[in-house]
């Protein structure tokens, strides 16, 4: 037991001289260390970055909060900010200047009960990357902007190359379905966000369109875990269309040897009658409520969300700055960024409830079962509503008692 | 108190205290937690915590995914236990053959997968089971069986994980059975042989009764093991495809630590406990009936 | 006579060939894991799947294990710290586990004290309680005690090793009472009897138990996954699972990670397999 106690003591004693901790997911986490030397030079503050896997980050952050092991600064997808603000894990933004000059709509997701808890960092709307060569061979200069023609293009491509797929949309990624839903204007929740609204005609239209792409064998009923390397599949021409966030730009840069620069292009996602609001994962930065060095944490926050660092990051990983001022820089005038900029002007509105992340995953799971032929469209919609209602039960109860606004 | 008694308490008290603190008390607390609606809202503010009686259980019984997790777990146990026990017994019987040489070597080799970490082995098998580049499909292709989408087809995912788990654990029970087989009375076996009993008859009437208790114990432990499957789907499939590999424990982990519904998750844990208890009792009863115990 | 000899020979060949091929199949995943880990990146994603690297390359291990400086910033999978964490945690769990359970197992077998039989029955009953039932309340308790995300928090639940107590007790029951009584008549204290008479006799099964405890701690996954949130504290399985979820495409890198996780325990097992396997065999088979 003495040994265990010793270990425990050793564990607690080291926090004081540790570098400032920054946790981020995916490429942001992998590449953020590259931004740190400049910060350390300017301020003398050492920063250590930990990269979390996307699929395990929600539970990691919650246990870190419960275990009083939060980092000083953390990245959160914008949809999670409300949830973490509610449990008291985040510090409110003390300086309004941090929130000045942002793209419309990016700030709203970081608000909880009238206070701001997050500074938008990068914006990642979804767009579609396409293979110029494959489309040209089928007589298309670029993917058509409306659903019906887009799907017709898919059929044409499939006819020309019956052994290959057209759309790379793994069944466990919710982006595509929610992009389509955003474009139809489906609200998805109703009654002050206490019940699912997936039986609405708007959502039904999006779901039907989504499922039809699999039913017509234009997209494979596969999970991302099976596609060992989606990028390679796109580069090798197994797929002609790959809806993705700007992070794809990094892959295209890193793996230039696999696909030539003139072999691909990027345009906005198609909508029912042309492009509309699309969803995407926008990353925000937050300072943990329990940080022992708030001044240094906010200094890091200011540095990371300022235009120069955002531009450096854009150059590194393709993420798009949330700050308007950054967009006047020459590097932002590249044509490949144009579709993303246009899309940013039209963000899809997602419900701002703490249960949203879970609902979205449940809805995608039901959609997967429908795609696999286990459920009809109405049955799938009904099941989505049932699952959403069950997840929101606690929220309904708390709304009645006034504990939740 | 005698000297002996004092020493005894000195020896047993520390470990009993730990068992009490990290196993018994928490297990009792789980009962208390299961009748509350402890959720992420309670993490924010304990005043949001309410007593809801059996609410978690009725909620669970109305949750399709819970039933699916139960069903998946049942499939894992139903096919996994015979597969694992059968292959262990087959290997042990083979190693028991008088003609087999280098037995210690084979024992070590066959046991090796058991000592590897589940996570690392699952990573390896994820690649072995790959549809296009996996060795397993390549091997099947050589004997004319078309590629199986092991981890992507909801019907193939459970068999895929079962193959992996069997590979991983059969060595353990093989050793246990080897020990039991070596205790099979030799004279009885010789007598049966002289009586002209066939190989199968000798196995059925001499070997099986002798190793019955060991077999039963192994079955009880295997059932408990398969009911507690977690790391395999966590690493290999994340519960997919189509939630076909979500097990009870996976469900509990997601419910409890991903979404922080600790009340609900505790109810799941208690149901898991009840299932294991029930299966143990049933298996013991069956064992008694056949006088193996 | 010749026919019988031939049949016997045939049986020898068939049974040995059968055992050898089963052993070979069992080893394929492990050997493949090692060979792929030495392949240049991307080589394993070809058909037919290559079993041997075209050239042996250390690049996967280099990427995995060495903290690299790129453009003035550190890139790190933190596998080496995880290796040390795993080693430290497993060693601590083993030593503490032995200190706690071996004396207790002895006491339950040979020392008379009130309530012994009842406690023993309770222990056997508690064996049925799956540890997962205790996990959720335990997490909340550890949260209050500040043990979440600490090494102690990882180790503590594993110390409630009831099976180990019963395992030791079973062996101690085989030690003749006369030996212990003789020492008592000579005036030796109970602790001294345990240390100088019983413990030497228990050495073989103590080694067996140590290997059991070490492996159980090294390979444990669910609880460390729950209780550790800071990557500096991750154990190897938790770290590897995190990388696997993010880098599922990098087959060769993942195989290197699997090698790093499994090889230490495989070596330990090979070194001590005589004790370990004989512990399982219960001493009934020699060699």
TrEMBL record, chain A:
Entry annotated with the keyword Signal: yes
Could you tell me the superkingdom of the organism this chain comes from? Bacteria
Keywords from UniProt, A to Z, are: Signal, Transport
* Gene3D superfamilies named among the record's database cross-references: Periplasmic binding protein-like II
Q: Where, subcellularly, is it found?
A: Periplasm
Keyword Transport applies? yes
Q: Which family does it belong to?
A: Belongs to the bacterial solute-binding protein 1 family.
Which PANTHER family does the annotation name? ABC TRANSPORTER PERIPLASMIC-BINDING PROTEIN YCJN-RELATED, ARABINOSE-BINDING PROTEIN-RELATED
Question: Under which name does UniProt file this protein?
Answer: Sugar ABC transporter substrate-binding protein
Q: Which organism is it from?
A: Sphingomonas metalli
Traced from the root, the source organism's taxonomic lineage reads: Bacteria, Pseudomonadati, Pseudomonadota, Alphaproteobacteria, Sphingomonadales
User: Which gene is transcribed and translated to give this protein?
Assistant: malE
Automatic annotation (TrEMBL), chain B:
What topology does it adopt in the membrane?
Answer: Multi-pass membrane protein
Could you mention a single GO BP entry for this protein? transmembrane transport
Does this entry carry the keyword DNA repair? no
**Any GO CC annotation of this UniProt entry:** plasma membrane
Question: Where does it reside?
Answer: Cell membrane
Q: Which domain of life is it from?
A: Bacteria
Positions of transmembrane segments: 7-32, 69-93, 105-128, 158-185, 206-231, 259-282
Q: Which UniProt keywords apply?
A: Cell membrane, Membrane, Transmembrane, Transmembrane helix, Transport
**Transmembrane among keywords:** yes
Family per UniProt? Belongs to the binding-protein-dependent transport system permease family.
What is the designated name of this protein?
Sugar ABC transporter permease
| Gene of this entry | lacF
């Amino acid at each position: 037991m003495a040994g265990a106690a010793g270990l425990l003591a050793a564990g607690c004693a080291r926090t004081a001289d540790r570098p400032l901790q920054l946790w981020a997911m995916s490429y942001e986490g992998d590449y953020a260390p590259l931004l740190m030397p400049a910060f350390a030079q300017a301020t003398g503050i050492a920063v250590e970055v930990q990269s979390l896997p996307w699929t395990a980050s929600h539970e990691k952050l919650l246990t870190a909060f419960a275990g009083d092991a939060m980092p000083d600064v953390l990245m959160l997808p914008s949809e999670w900010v409300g949830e973490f603000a509610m449990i008291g894990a985040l510090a409110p933004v003390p300086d309004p200047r941090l929130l000045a000059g942002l793209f419309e709509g990016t700030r709203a997701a970081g608000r909880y009960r009238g206070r701001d808890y997050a500074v938008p960092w990068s914006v990642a709307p979804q767009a579609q990357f396409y293979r110029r060569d494959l489309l040209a061979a089928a007589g298309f200069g670029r993917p058509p902007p409306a659903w019906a023609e887009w799907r017709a293009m898919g059929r044409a491509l499939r006819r020309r190359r019956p052994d290959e797929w057209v759309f790379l949309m793994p069944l466990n990624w919710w982006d595509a379905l929610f992009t389509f839903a955003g474009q139809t204007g489906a609200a998805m929740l109703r009654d002050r966000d206490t019940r699912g609204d997936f039986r609405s005609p708007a959502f039904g239209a999006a779901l039907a369109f989504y499922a039809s792409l699999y039913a017509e064998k234009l997209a494979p009923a596969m999970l991302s875990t099976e596609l060992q390397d989606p990028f390679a599949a796109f580069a090798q021409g197994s797929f002609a269309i790959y809806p993705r966030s700007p992070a794809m730009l990094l892959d295209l840069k890193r793996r230039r040897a696999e696909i030539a620069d003139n072999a691909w292009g990027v345009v906005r996602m198609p909508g029912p009658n042309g492009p509309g609001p699309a969803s995407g994962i926008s990353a925000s930065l937050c300072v943990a409520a329990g940080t022992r060095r708030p001044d240094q944490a906010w200094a890091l926050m200011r540095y990371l969300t300022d235009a120069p660092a955002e531009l450096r990051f854009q150059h590194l990983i393709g993420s798009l700055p949330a700050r308007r001022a950054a967009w006047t820089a020459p590097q932002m005038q590249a044509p490949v960024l144009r579709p993303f900029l246009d899309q940013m002007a039209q963000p899809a509105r997602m419900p701002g409830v703490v249960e949203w992340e879970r609902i979205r995953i449940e809805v995608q799971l039901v959609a997967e079962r429908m795609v696999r032929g286990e459920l009809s469209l109405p049955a799938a919609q009904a099941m989505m509503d049932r699952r959403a209602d069950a997840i929101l039960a606690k929220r309904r109860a708390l709304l009645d008692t006034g504990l939740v606004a | 108190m005698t000297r002996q008694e004092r020493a005894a308490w000195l020896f047993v008290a520390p470990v009993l205290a730990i068992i009490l603190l990290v196993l018994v008390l928490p297990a009792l607390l789980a009962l208390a937690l299961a009748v509350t609606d402890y959720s992420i809202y309670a993490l924010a503010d304990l005043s949001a915590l309410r007593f809801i009686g059996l609410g978690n259980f009725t909620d669970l019984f109305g949750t399709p995914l819970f039933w699916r997790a139960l069903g998946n777990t049942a499939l894992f146990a139903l096919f996994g236990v015979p597969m694992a026990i059968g292959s262990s017994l087959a290997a042990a019987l083979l190693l028991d053959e008088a003609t087999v040489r280098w037995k210690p070597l084979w024992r070590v080799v066959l046991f090796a997968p058991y000592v590897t970490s589940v996570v690392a082995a699952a990573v390896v098998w994820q690649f072995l089971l790959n549809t296009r580049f996996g060795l397993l499909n390549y091997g099947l292709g050589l004997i004319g069986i078309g590629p199986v989408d092991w981890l992507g087809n909801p019907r193939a995912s459970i068999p895929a994980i079962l193959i992996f788990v069997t590979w991983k654990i059969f060595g353990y029970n093989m050793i246990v059975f080897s020990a039991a087989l070596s205790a099979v009375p030799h004279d009885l076996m010789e007598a049966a042989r002289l009586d002209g009993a066939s190989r199968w008859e000798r196995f059925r009437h001499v070997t099986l009764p002798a190793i019955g208790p060991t077999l039963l114990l192994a079955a009880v432990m295997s059932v408990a093991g398969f009911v507690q499957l977690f790391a395999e789907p966590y690493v290999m499939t994340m519960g997919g495809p189509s939630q076909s590999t979500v097990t009870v424990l996976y469900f509990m982990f997601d419910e409890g630590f991903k979404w922080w519904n600790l009340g609900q998750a505790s109810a799941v844990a208690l149901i898991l406990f009840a299932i294991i208890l029930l299966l143990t009792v049933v298996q013991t009863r069956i064992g008694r009936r056949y006088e193996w115990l | 006579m010749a026919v019988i000899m031939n049949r016997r020979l045939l049986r020898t060949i068939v049974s040995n060939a059968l055992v050898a091929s089963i052993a070979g199949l069992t080893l394929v995943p492990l050997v493949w894991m090692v060979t792929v880990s030495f392949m240049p990146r991307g080589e394993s994603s070809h058909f037919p799947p290559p079993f041997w690297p075209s050239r042996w390359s250390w690049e996967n291990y280099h990427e995995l294990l060495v903290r690299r400086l790129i453009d003035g910033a550190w890139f790190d999978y933190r596998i080496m710290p995880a290796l040390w964490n795993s080693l430290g945690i497993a060693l601590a769990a083993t030593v503490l586990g032995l200190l706690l359970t071996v004396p207790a197992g002895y006491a339950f077998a040979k020392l008379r004290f009130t309530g012994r039989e009842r406690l023993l029955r309770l222990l056997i009953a508690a064996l049925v309680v799956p540890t997962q039932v205790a996990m959720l309340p335990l997490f909340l308790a550890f949260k209050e005690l500040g043990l979440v995300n600490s090494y102690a928090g990882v180790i503590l639940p594993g110390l409630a090793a009831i099976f180990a107590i019963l395992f030791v007790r079973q062996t101690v029951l085989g030690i003749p009472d006369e030996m212990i009584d003789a020492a008592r008549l000579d005036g030796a204290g109970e602790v001294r009897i345990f240390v100088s008479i019983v413990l030497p006799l228990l050495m073989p099964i103590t080694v067996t138990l140590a290997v059991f405890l070490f492996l159980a701690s090294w390979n444990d996954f669910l609880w460390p996954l729950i209780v550790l949130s800071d990557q500096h504290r991750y154990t190897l399985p938790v770290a590897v699972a995190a990388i696997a979820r993010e880098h599922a495409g990098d087959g060769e890198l993942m195989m290197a990670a699997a090698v790093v996780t499994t090889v230490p325990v495989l070596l330990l097992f090979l070194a001590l397999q005589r004790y370990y396997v004989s512990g399982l065999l219960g001493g009934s088979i020699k060699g």
